[in-house]
Structures are given as structure tokens and as C-alpha cells.
Specification:
alpha+beta, Heat Shock Protein 90, rod-shaped, His_kinase_dom, cell inner membrane
Length: about 450
């Protein structure tokens, strides 16, 4: 049997699920005990007590059976009424209530009424205004009689005390269990927060605590985080060192070629420039999103600044639409590089580009669109891989590249806990690149 439909009603947070695990069994047990007690004990006890009262009323009626008037009947019943602590008096029919009156939540009162009407003939009305007294109206040969007696004659006081006690101690035990459970769940929440922050490119202080299994998972996370940080640092240092060491011979080559005739040295100078661009791309890819610390910035101001810088360089780019306001925790240097890469690709393969920013309560989206040839849907996964060059999809004659532009953007997006999505622009018809970051 499939229970997938039930998942939509289950809380998603670990605290809410823990509370459900604690509260649900307590509530179910209390309901089961209450139902069993009411049906098996309270109802039987109330019926027996009410039946005893009915037999007493039959005895009282026997004393008044031979009376010829109401006064004689009252005189005959008075001794036993005093003994049984019951009040009785004759009333007018106009004083009889038209219907029974019982509080809607009074379960034992309904049992009393049902027993009285079933065992006593000629019952006119049963009135139970509170827990202290019951008024019973019955018909007789001498006229209607109102019989009043203490409510405790027909129902016990213990059920109410039982329910109150059960609810009180159930609430106390639930509170104690919740406090204990919260202390057990807090290390798991801290671990989740540290993992989420690391996924967004931030390293927050974390110490493994809690139960043995949680400490084991926490220590494994710390080892993994240290290993990843060490690998990133080593990769950055290695590529930075290689790039730095290769700059010196490239500079000597450029100086040597500058002494040669321009016509002969032109092709070689272009090769040197291409090698220089390749080294710069390697260095950008090595740095990735590690450059700069996260800080609260206005993403709209950042996008506007990047677009203005591109316009000053003569690039045909504009800021199309802006939605939302607020600040987001980002690495501005890395994100600026990502936007510059997307804009550079857009103007290289198209004639113009547009940038838009959408900021909501849950996400931030940077979008760069162009009117170029775009990238086919089946090639988009390959396009974000390092050193991937899709010659059939993009016009490589319009500029040189090493296949790291989109890979750098994707790396920066993942470091912010987001993703790079490629599609087709409905506005311009070319490539649409979205950097989507969760808040």
C-alpha cells in the first residue's frame, strides 16, 4: 500500500516531527483510555446509580398510592423523602419545561436521562442545569410532580478528576520529553546549519556534540570540510604558481618579438596573447569563488555596477528589468566575475546583451540574455564543463576562448548554494543564462 499522499501532511522540520512523535502517542493513549473508561466504567456506574434512584422513587410512589389528595400524598411521602434526601412537590402543568435541558458536553447527564426515561413511566422532563442538582418532572394521578435530588446520587465525581489529572500529567510529561528531545536535536540542527553554510561557500564554527551517532557524523563532516578546503587551497596554489611561473617566459617572448619586424612577429604575438588569456582563465578558474569574504550586499546595485563598467568598455549591454529590494549574503568579487563572464560571452557571440535581476523572499536570480546562436538543449550540460568548447553551437570566429567561462560561473553559483541554468531567451532569441541562489 502506498502512503505517498500522507507525506504532504507531515511536518518538514525536525523539531516539528519530534514534537509530533512525542505528542501523538500521548494523545492517542489518552483518547483510548478515555473512550474505554467512559464506555466500560463511567456509563455502567452511572446507569447503576440511576437505577438505584428509580427503585427509591418507586418506593416513594408506593407510599402515596393510597392518598386521595395532594396534601395526603405529601404527608405520606415526607418521612421517606427526608430520609433519602429527596425533595418533591406538586406543580402546575404550565410550569413544566417543554423539553429536557442538559449541557452539550455532559456525557453522564445523557446517560442519566436515558436511564430515567427508560425505567420510569410518565417522565415529562429531565433538567440538569449543573453538577449539583437534577430536576425530574413526572406525571401522576394527582398531577405533575417535581422531584429534585443531588446530582451525586446518579453520577460520580471521580471521572472529572480523572480527566483533569490525566491531562495535567500528560502535559507535564510531554513538556519534559520535548525539553529533553530538543537538547538531543540541537546538535543535529547545528550540523545541518554548518553543512548548509559550507555549501554556500561559508565556513562557520562547529564542534561535534550530542549523542554518539551525531558526534560521529559531525566529526566526519569536519574531516570532509577540512579535506575539501585543503584540496581547494592546493589547487589554487598550484595553478597560481604555474600561471605566475609562465608569465615570465611569456613576457620575454613578447619583448623578443617586439624587436622583430611587425609583419613577421604578428602571428607569434597573437599566439602569445592567446597563451596569456589562457593563463588568466586558468587563474580565474583556480580562484573560483574563494576570492573575497561573504558580506551583505545589494545585488541590484552590484548588477548595475557591472553593467555600467561593461558599457564604459563599449560593450552593447543594458540593465533590462529589476524586481525586489533587499540585501543578500554574497561574495561580491566572485559574483562580479561571474556576471562579467556571462556578459563577455553574450557580447562575443551576439550583438547585444541584457541583464535582469529578480530578488524574492526565497531566491535571487541574475539573468543574462543575448541575441546570439545560443546553445542547443542537449549540449548545455557539456557547456558548463571545464575546457568544453562547443564549436557548432557558438560562433568561435567572433572570439577566442578556452572553455572555462561557463565553468567558472557554475562554480561560483554552486559556492553560493545556487545553480547556473542555461536556456533560450524569449526576448532576444539567443542564450539565456540564469544564476539562481537560494536565500
Amino acid at each position: 500500500m502506498q502512503f505517498g499522499w500522507f507525506k504532504q501532511y507531515v511536518p518538514r522540520g525536525i523539531y516539528a516531527r519530534a514534537a509530533l512523535i512525542i505528542v501523538l502517542p500521548v494523545v492517542v493513549v489518552q483518547l483510548a483510555v478515555s473512550v474505554v473508561f467512559i464506555r466500560r466504567h463511567l456509563e455502567d456506574v452511572t446507569s447503576q446509580m440511576t437505577s438505584t434512584l428509580v427503585r427509591e422513587l418507586d418506593v416513594i410512589a408506593g407510599f402515596a398510592a393510597a392518598a386521595d389528595s395532594r396534601d395526603e400524598a405529601m404527608d405520606a411521602m415526607q418521612p421517606i423523602l427526608v430520609t433519602l434526601h429527596i425533595n418533591a412537590r406538586f406543580v402546575r402543568r404550565a410550569d413544566i419545561p417543554s423539553r429536557d435541558r442538559i449541557r452539550w458536553y455532559d456525557y453522564s447527564g445523557r446517560v442519566v436521562r436515558a436511564t430515567l426515561r427508560n425505567d420510569l413511566p410518565d417522565v415529562l422532563a429531565v433538567i440538569q442545569p449543573d453538577d449539583r442538582v437534577v430536576h425530574l418532572f413526572v406525571d401522576s394521578d394527582l398531577g405533575p410532580v417535581q422531584i429534585s435530588f443531588n446530582r451525586r446520587r446518579v453520577s460520580a465525581a471521580a471521572p472529572h478528576q480523572l480527566f483533569v489529572t490525566m491531562l495535567f500529567f500528560g502535559g507535564v510529561m510531554t513538556l519534559i520529553a520535548y525539553v529533553y528531545m530538543r537538547n538531543q536535536l540541537r546538535p543535529i540542527k547545528k550540523l545541518a546549519e554548518a553543512a548548509e553554510a559550507f555549501g554556500r561557500g561559508r565556513s562557520v564554527p562547529y564542534a561535534a556534540r550530542g549523542a554518539l551517532e551525531v558526534r560521529t557524523a559531525g566529526n566526519a563532516f569536519l574531516d570532509m570540510r577540512n579535506r575539501i578546503e585543503r584540496q581547494i587551497e592546493q589547487r589554487t596554489m598550484m595553478l597560481s604558481g604555474v600561471s605566475h611561473d609562465l608569465r615570465t617566459p611569456l613576457t620575454r617572448l613578447r619583448l623578443g618579438l617586439s624587436l622583430i619586424d611587425e609583419d613577421d612577429a604578428g602571428p607569434m604575438l597573437r599566439d602569445v596573447d592567446e597563451m596569456q588569456a589562457l593563463l588568466d582563465a586558468f587563474l580565474d578558474f583556480a580562484r573560483g569563488a574563494a576570492e573575497g569574504d561573504p558580506e551583505r550586499i545589494d545585488p541590484i546595485s552590484l548588477a548595475r555596477s557591472v553593467v555600467e563598467d561593461a558599457q564604459r568598455l563599449g560593450r552593447p549591454v543594458s540593465l533590462a528589468t529589476v524586481e525586489g529590494t533587499g540585501t543578500v549574503n554574497l561574495r561580491p568579487v566572485a559574483l562580479r566575475r561571474a556576471l562579467e563572464n556571462l556578459i563577455g560571452n553574450a557580447v562575443r557571440y551576439g550583438t547585444r546583451a541584457e541583464v535582469s535581476v529578480t530578488l524574492t523572499e526565497k531566491s535571487l536570480r541574475f539573468r543574462v540574455e543575448d541575441d546570439g546562436p545560443g546553445i542547443a538543449a542537449e549540449d548545455r550540460a557539456e557547456a558548463v564543463r571545464p575546457f568544453s568548447r562547443l564549436d557548432p553551437a557558438r560562433n568561435q570566429d567572433k572570439g577566442s576562448g578556452v572553455g572555462l567561462g561557463l565553468a567558472i560561473v557554475s562554480d561560483i553559483a554552486r559556492a553560493h548554494g545556487g545553480v547556473l541554468r542555461l536556456g533560450t531567451s524569449d526576448r532576444l532569441g539567443g542564450l539565456m543564462a540564469d544564476i539562481v541562489i537560494g536565500r
